[in-house]
Amino acid sequence: MACASDLEAPAIHVSPLSKGRKVETAWLDIKGEPVYASLTNLRVRFPPSVYNGTGQETKKNVVFDLTMEDHKGLSELERRIREAGAYAIGGAAWNSWLRDEDQPRLKVKVTEATAYYDAACQAIVCPPDEDWRGMVCNARVLVKALWVHNKSAGLLAEVTDLQVVEKPKAERVCPFKSWGQ
User: What is the distance between the alpha carbons of residues 78 and 76, in angstroms, rounded to a whole number?
Assistant: First the structure.
């Protein structure tokens, strides 16, 4: 995993908070460049979805299984961002993008701007949501900003590029096929 190419070196810059309609946002950069995390061999745990969604959303959450090494690197990146943005977070409860330390996972957004590629690096259309579970992929994640809303805060991160390395192998077999025979 590579996070902004070198975690130890340059400091993460957090802009002053800008107010939106409901959420305040502080943009992130390292030496004026966007903050990216490049992750390989991710397995999709939960395909793109939105709570109470209509199916017409342009941004959806996706959850990837992580290796312990990637979890450690992303935890360190998150820690550094929280430290740099402490002024913005204040006493707000932190809503981490990382889940389940025993089975580490990453929750980020995919958008209609996300670019998709096959294993041969050829551009492809976005796979249907139902085909994502178990898919192995590489992802480039843009860590855009800190968000603060009421009494909680977190990271605004989205997948800018996703490469499908391996589609799920096994088709599900209907368990009722042999019933009544």
Answer: 5
Closest CA to 7 of 70, 97, 86, 66: 70
How far apart CA 46 and CA 62 sit, in angstroms, is 6
pLDDT, one tens digit per residue, over 129-139 is: 777 888 999 99
Write out the two tokens for 2.
């590579």
The span from the CA of 73 to the CA of 70, in Å, is 5
Tell me the pLDDT band of 53, cut-offs 50, 70 and 90: confident
Do 108 and 36 meet the contact criterion of CB atoms below 8 Å apart?
no
Cα-Cα-Cα-Cα dihedral sign, residues 147, 7, 158, 75: negative
Q: Taking a C-beta distance cutoff of 8 angstroms, is the pair 118, 124 a contact?
A: yes
